[in-house]
Structure formats: C-alpha cells, structure tokens
Amino acid sequence: MTAAPTDMPLLDVTHLSKSFPARQRFLRRDAADIRAVNDVSFAIDRGETLGVVGESGCGKTTMGRSILRLIEPTSGSVVFDGIDVATLHGSALRKMRRRMQVVFQDPFSSLNPRMTVGAAVREGILIHHLAEGREADKRVKVLFEEVGLNPAYASRYPHEFSGGQRQRIGVARALSVEPEMIVCDEPVSALDVSVQAQVINLLQDLQRDRGLTYLFIAHDLSVVQHIADRVAVMYLGRIVEIASSYDLYSNPIMPYTQALLSAVPRPKPGRQTARIVLQGEPPSPANPPPGCVFYPRCSHPLKDQDCTRVVPPLEEKTPTHFAACIKQPTTMAAR
Predict the structure, then answer these.
(1) Which residue from 290, 309, 297 is spatially nearest to 255, judged by alpha carbons?
(2) Which candidate in 104, 208, 242, 312 could, as Cys together with 324 as Cys, close a disulfide (CB 3.0–4.6 Å)?
(3) Helix/strand/coil (H/E/C) assignment for every residue in 159-175
(4) Which domains does the chain have, with CATH numbers?
(5) With DSSP H G I counted as helix, E B as strand and the rest as coil, what are the percentages for the chain, rounded to 5?
(6) Which residues contact 6 (CB under 8 A, 6 or more apart)?
C-alpha cells in the first residue's frame, strides 16, 4: 500500500450511509430501517479540524464510528490517505486503526475500571508492538506528562480521578499509538466549563506539536467555533451545510443552522439577538419526509411545495460554502 499524495485530503468520505434494522412489532414485518447516516460526503485535509454539530440523534456519533469501522457502514466509501478502509481486514485493519484513533464522550465508561490507567495507556503500545518492558513504561510516563498529568498517577485506577483527568487519560490512550487523525466524539460535553477550556487547549496544543487531524463532534457550537477550521451541520443523518468556521458563524445559509446559532448564549448581555424557535420534533429517521428533511420545521419565507418534492443537494452557494437548500440561490462566483 502506498500513501496518497500530500496534496490529497487525509480523509475522503463519499456517500457514507448507515442503517439499523427497526425492531419489528408482533406480527409486523414491514418496519423500515432506521437511516442514522444518509449519503454523507466530505473531506478533511491534513492538520485540519472539521467540527460536526447538530441536535442529539442526528447521526454525528454514528458517522464517526462508521468512519473508524467501530460499526460497519451500510454503504459508501471511507478513504484514508489513499486507502479504502472498507476493504481492510485482519492485520491490515489493525494497522490502520493505529493511524485513526478516538476519544470517547464519556470519560467514566470509556476506561476499564479493573485496569490501572497506566495499563490502559500501555495496552495500545503493546498491541501494536511499539515498545515493551521499561521502554513501554517510559512511553507511558512521557504521555502522562504530555497531557498534563503526574506520571506517578499511572498506578491508580479510574475511580480515583475527576472527569477532566479521566478525559486527559483518554487522550493519552489515543496518542499512545501515534495516530495521524483522532475522532473526538463530544470529548468535553460531560465536563465543567472551566475543564472544557483546559481540554480544548490541550487538544489544540497537541495538534500544533504533532500535526494531528481532528474530526470534532459536538453539540456545543461555541466550543466548535473555538477549535474548528471548518464546520459541518447535520440534520436527520444528512450534512445540510458545511463551510469555514468564520463563514458559517457569520453568514449561516440553512434555516436550521440559523436556528442553532440563535440559541447560542451571547457573552454580551446588552447585545440582543432574535431567537429562532423550531416548532415540533425532528422526523423519525425510519420514516423521513419526502424532499427536504427539514421542511416540516423550516421557517424560510420562500418555503413551498417544491421543498416536499425535491431532495436538495449539497451545493456551493458561495465560494467554499455549501448548503442543501433549493430556495437559496447559487452565486455566479460559486459556479
């Protein structure tokens, strides 16, 4: 296997979908599959952070785990550094897992309570034969120092640490195999605000020092604005808008994105912003509406019956700013 040219994206996801079989009621066999991720495509460059935001249940975590093949995607391709991850098995897949790691959302359940935290970090080093014995212990010590923990803590168990410390241990475990990309699955959502800032700063420092690439999944838009180079907005399993962080926050195109941003608390109390309140609940992923999936809750003034018939493609509305809305015109510059 040869590496892709350096001018190619590190990760290229094309038409990724993941469906789960619905639980069938007694004597009913017509239950539709639940489409958790539906025809998602995007790319991430080396050293870039792509933030993914959206309501709970929109498919963010399922997408991240499908990319890593922690769950098997239903269809689509995931190409990492020129290698199709879906075609890998056995030792080849294990070798790829070293290059793509994950930091889980819950720092309490993601660590084995029966293992010392040093053993948890050392485990990946031993599995991938990166070091053994004292050399492995030395690597664990360096990793603990790198994430801001006392190396003497390696002999302790997870229950002896706070949530922020456990998440640092999770970061050290991901770093232990020297990955190129890390999927950060809501890594700060379970932490206090002050600890969130510490972990975000740690991730940024590690990215600068190690040249890491992040897929950063979150529901806190203010956190994503701080860390992400580009932001993708998901709704009902689809990416409905993707742009640079600055463009998305300063000029959101999709009514759904506008509603999400209107709910972000402002640091200046005197600065009033109109709150957009979405009506109703998101449709069921087992029975999505025809046409635009956001149509039932959309407040766009030009919304009409065309929105119920046409599935809007993710189009470039302004340069490098993509949105899935047929009522938003495409500029000549984007064409």
Answers:
(1) 297
(2) 312
(3) HHCCHHHHHHHHHHHHH
(4) 11-21+32-323 (3.40.50.300)
(5) 35, 20, 45
(6) 46
Element (H, E) at 97: helix 90-99
Give the CA distances from residue 255 to residues 155, 241, 302, in Å, rounded to whole numbers and listed in that order. Answer: 51, 10, 11
Dihedral sign of CA atoms 77, 81, 87, 89 in order: negative
For the four alpha carbons of 77, 81, 82 and 87, in that order, the dihedral sign comes to negative
196 with 117: CB under 8 angstroms? Answer: no
In angstroms, what CA-CA distances link 169 with 18, 122, 157, 269?
30, 11, 11, 37
3-state secondary structure of 276: coil
In degrees, rounded to 5, the angle at the alpha carbon of residue 105 between the alpha carbons of residues 100 and 109 is 105
Contacting residues for 176 by C-beta, under 8 A, at least 6 apart: 121, 122, 123, 124, 125, 130, 139, 140, 143
Q: Return the H-helix or E-strand segment holding 272.
A: none
pLDDT digits (tens, 9 = 90+) for 257-306: 988 888 777 666 655 567 777 777 888 888 888 889 898 888 888 888 88
- Write out the two tokens for 131: 């070091």
Mean pLDDT in the chain?
89
Non-local (6+) Cβ contacts of 113 within 8 A are 157, 158, 159
Higher pLDDT pick, 301 / 155 = 155
CA distance 193 to 333: 41
Distance in angstroms (rounded) separating the CA atoms of residues 138 and 197: 28
Residue 332 burial (C-beta neighbours within 10 Å; 0-12, 13-18, 19+): exposed
Contact 236, 288 (CB under 8 A): yes
Task: Please compute the mean of the pLDDT values over residues 165-191 and round it to a whole number.
Answer: 94
Report d(CA 279, CA 272) in Å as an integer. Answer: 22
Has this prediction a pTM greater than 0.85? yes
Q: Please compute the mean of the pLDDT values over residues 59-66 and round it to a whole number.
A: 96
